[in-house]
Small acid-soluble spore protein H (Minor)
Amino acid sequence: MRLERAMEIQDSLGVIDVKYNGHSVWIEEVHKDTKSAVVKDLDTNKVFEVPVSKLQEK
């Protein structure tokens, strides 16, 4: 995923399906300087940081 798109999704009022390694995640924060995102796994509620490039919009 592009950094700009991740920021659009984070700011969106709608629910947009984003996956990381096949798991649905919610984008909590986007870090422009490191091109990473803090995401929450919607199945486990675990929060972790991942490269934005590894996120996929479904």
Q: What stands out?
A: The first strand starts at residue 18 and ends at 20. DSSP finds one helix and five strands in the chain. The chain has a mean pLDDT of 97. The domain at 3-57 is CATH 2.30.30.140 (SH3 type barrels.).
